[in-house]
Amino acid sequence: MPNTADTGSDAPIDVTPLLDDPYPAYAALREAGPVHRITAADGNPAWLVTRYDDVRSGLADPRLSLDKRHAAPGGYQGFSLPPALDANLGNMDPPDHTRIRRLVAKAFTPRRVEALRAPTRKTADALLDAMAERGRADLIADYAGPLPITVICDLLGIPHRDRRDFLAWSDALITPDPSRPGMMKEAIGAMLEFYTGLIAAKRAEPGDDLLSDLIAVRDDQAAGEGAGEGSERLSEDELTSLAFLLLFGGYENTVHLIGNAVLTLLDHPDQLRQLQRDPAELPAAVEEFLRYDGPGPLSIRRFPTEDLEIGGVRIAAGETVLLAIASANRDPERFTDPATFDRGRDRSGHLALGHGIHYCLGAPLARMETVIALEALLDRFPGLRLDVPRGDVRHRRALRSRGLISLPVAF
After folding, report:
1. Which end of the chain, C or N, has fewer beta carbons within 10 A?
2. Pairing of β 313-315 and β 308-310
C-alpha cells in the first residue's frame, strides 16, 4: 500500500491490498494518514477513515447519515435493493431508525435469545456427529455455515426446505462472481419473492417465532388506533426489509466470526489448548476474536448531511464515508501490540459490533452462537488441525466482509 496520505485530492488509492492482505495494508494507511480517498466496489469514490478515535466518533456522529437520500449523485451506495428490501435499519436514521429498532426489541428479547441456547448446542452436536464419521471436514460448509443459518431460521420460523436456497442467495450477495454479472440481481429478486411468500404464509398460519410476532405487531397497528400519522406503525416494506436484514445479517456475520475464530486458534495452538482446558474463558475469548479478526471490516456506508472535517480532511455533504472498523481495532494508539492475538488484553472498546445507536441488534445472539460453536467443537475434537497447508487457506476477496472460503480440518 503506498505510503501517501490523501488530504483531499481526487486521486484515489488502490484498494487491492485491502482485499489480498488487509491488516498490513490498513497499518500502512493509518501511518500515512487518518482519511484516504478510495474507489469503492462499484467504481465510485469514497472516503476511508482508518484511525480508532475517528472511526469511533464517526459511528456515533448524527451528521453521518445512513439514509441514501443524503448521498450525492455518483457516490458509492452499496447494495442496490428493491424498496421492499431497502427499508431496513441499515439505511435509516432517527426517528425511523428509533421506531423500527424499538419494535424489533419488543420481539427480539433476551428471553428469546436465551431460549435458543439449548437448541443451538443440539444443532452443533448433530453437525459434529456427522463430521466425526468422516474424520475430516470443511469447517465452513459443514459447521460454521449450517449452525447460524439453522439458528436464525429457527428464530424466524423459516422452513427447512428453503434454507439451502437462502445460502446460495447469500453467497451471491456476499461475494459476487465477476463472470456472472447478473447473479446478484437474480439473487435479490429470488429473495424478494421468498420473503413476500413467507410473510403471506405466516400471516395465514402464524407460528411461535420472531417473524410471526413482527407480523402481528404490524397488523395490529394497521388495524388499531396506532396506525395514524406519527405512530409506531411498521409498514409492509419495513416488515419485509426487516426480515431480510435479520436473516441475512444473522447468517453472514456469525459464519465469518466462527470461521475466523477457529483459524485464529489453529494459528495459536497454545491458546487453543488453554481454551480446551478452561472453556469458561470462551466468552472473553470471543471479544478478542472480534477485535483481532472480526467479520465486518467496514461499517455501512455513511453520507455527511453537511460539510464536515474528519482527521483534518474536509469532506463535502453527500460524499460517501467508510469507517474502517478492522483498522480501528488494530490501531496501536488504542490497543497495545494490536497485531497479536491476546486473550488477556483489555478488549473493551473494540468496534467489531458497532458503536452508538447503530450497535448490532443481534450481538447477544452472535456471541452466544460463537461461544457454543467453539465450546462444542473444542470438546469433541481435541486434536483439531488444519488438513491443508496454511498458505492454501483463503479468505473471500471482499471489502465489506471478512470470511473464509473454506477451512479444511482433520481430527
Report:
1. C
2. antiparallel
Which residues are 105's β-sheet partners?
A: none
Instruction: Give 135-192 as a DSSP string.
Output: SEEEHIIIIITHHHHHHHHHHHT--GGGHHHHHHHHHHHHS--TT-TTHHHHHHHHHH
The structure's pTM equals 0.91
- The phi, psi pair for 410, rounded to 5°, reads -130, 165
How far apart CA 124 and CA 373 sit, in angstroms, is 6
- CA 377, CA 348: separation in Å to the nearest integer? 26
| Percentage, residues of the chain above pLDDT 90 | 63
**What residue has cell string 422452513?**
159
Check whether 161 has a pLDDT greater than 90.
no
Beta bridge partners of 408: 138
Residue 77 pLDDT class (50, 70, 90 cuts): low
- The answer to whether 347 touches 288, Cβ cutoff 8 Å, is yes
Mean pLDDT along residues 364-385: 96
Predicted local distance difference test score (pLDDT) of residue 230: 45
Give 407's pLDDT tier (boundaries 50, 70, 90). Answer: very high
Please state the rounded mean pLDDT for residues 242-260. Answer: 91
User: In angstroms, rounded to a whole number, what is the distance separating the alpha carbons of residues 263 and 404?
Assistant: 9
Going by C-alpha positions, the residue among 411, 401, 309, 371 that lies closest to residue 124 is 371
In this structure, what are the phi and psi dihedrals at residue 331, rounded to the nearest 5 degrees? -80, 120
Q: How far is CA 104 from CA 127, 223, 271, 401, in A?
A: 30, 19, 37, 24
* DSSP letter string, 98-128: HHHHHHHHHHS-HHHHHHTHHHHHHHHHHHH
Rounded Cα distance between 397 and 42, Å, is 14
Which of the listed ranges 144-158, 198-212, 323-337 does the model predict with the highest average pLDDT? Answer: 323-337
Indicate the angle between helix axes 210-223 and 183-204, nearest 10 degrees.
70
